[in-house]
Write a structure and sequence with these properties.
33% of the residues lie in helices and 21% in strands. It folds into three domains: 69 residues, lambda repressor-like DNA-binding domains (434 Repressor (Amino-terminal Domain), Orthogonal Bundle), CATH 1.10.260.40; 32 residues; 104 residues, Immunoglobulin-like. Strand 8 and strand 9 form a beta hairpin. By secondary structure, it is of the alpha+beta class. It starts with a helix and ends with a strand. It has six helices and ten strands; from the N terminus they run ααααααββββββββββ. The strands form two sheets. Strands 1-2-10-7-4-5 form a six-stranded mixed beta sheet.
Length: 290
């Protein structure tokens, strides 16, 4: 056990906190917290995130983070160059499994949509051409005065012309007008620079939709709800992830160095340029029923 690990463990025990208590506060899995106390940074999902995890752990214990990061800098892996997460990482395996599961389904849906579109286009063309030919070949209505046919006499051979019917219009495709309230209105409650927690209020929406895009480097993201949802992923540069949460009115998500991440809540972009550089940022969204 390293001196840093001893300090964190001793402070935690003095406060009467268990690893499970720290996990609930930091949203970092207890096995990673235990590895930090042992000084086993190789057990983390990536050594690039060692400083972020230690910072979050220290903040919960009330320890000044900058002092311990400086004091124990020789024990903590350098954050200069992000280290790639090993292929055996549970987080990466989870992402790969999702990709393998959904990619074939996506291709199948795309092919079905293309086929349906072709059928619709061909049907419209056929209706237009049929209507044109029908109007072109329709016989003119005989003049009752000049034709010499007695309209009232069934034996005169007069046959009334067929009625001209307009072709059926294709059914309109829904989605032209957005349903009111699907995006909602997002109001910042606390978005001050230097604050570790930014809070927002969402009204007029049936669900909370969070989209995170890593603009530079790899980014660790942790999203949770009070109803037990908890997912941690690592996004590579240029990758995006979207969560749609309808069963909870409160959503929290955390990320390291949010200034290099694009965050959208229900389609509305959050200005992350004021978030602290080199530390974790906590975002909290509360959905209100209007």
């Amino acid at each position: 056990m390293t001196e840093l690990g001893e300090l964190l463990k001793k402070t935690r025990e003095e406060k009467g906190l268990s690893l499970h208590d720290i996990q609930e506060s930091t949203k970092i899995q207890s096995r990673y917290l235990e590895a930090i106390e042992r000084g086993d940074f190789d057990a983390l999902p990536g050594q690039f995130y060692a400083r972020a995890f230690i910072r979050r752990y220290a903040e919960v214990l009330g320890i000044k983070t900058e002092e311990i990061l400086t004091q124990f800098s020789n024990e903590i892996p350098s954050p200069v160059t992000p280290i790639e997460v090993e292929e055996s990482s549970p987080i990466l395996q989870k992402n790969n499994a999702k990709k393998e599961m959904f990619v074939p389904s996506g291709k199948w849906i795309s092919r079905v949509l293309i086929a349906v579109s072709v059928v619709v286009v061909l049907s419209v063309i056929w209706l237009v051409v049929s209507n044109y030919q029908s109007n072109k070949n329709a016989a003119p209505i005989p003049d009752q005065q000049n034709s010499g046919v007695n309209k009232t006499n069934p034996d005169s051979g007069f046959v009334p012309p067929p009625k001209q019917t307009e072709p059926e219009k294709p059914a309109e495709t829904p989605g032209g007008t957005p349903v009111a309230g699907t995006e909602g209105t997002l109001t910042p409650i606390n978005q001050d620079a230097g604050k570790s927690i930014w809070t927002y209020e969402l009204t007029g929406a049936s669900k909370v939709v969070v989209t995170v895009t890593a603009k530079t480097g790899e980014k660790w993201v942790n999203i949770t709800t009070p109803k037990g949802f908890n997912e941690q992923i690592t996004l590579k540069q240029g990758e995006s992830k979207t969560w749609e949460i309808a069963d909870s009115n409160e959503v929290s998500f955390y990320m390291h160095n949010a200034t290099t991440v694009e965050v959208k809540i229900n389609g509305q972009t959050i200005d992350t340029t004021k978030s602290p550089t080199g530390s974790s940022q906590h975002f909290k969204v509360t959905r209100k029923n209007s």
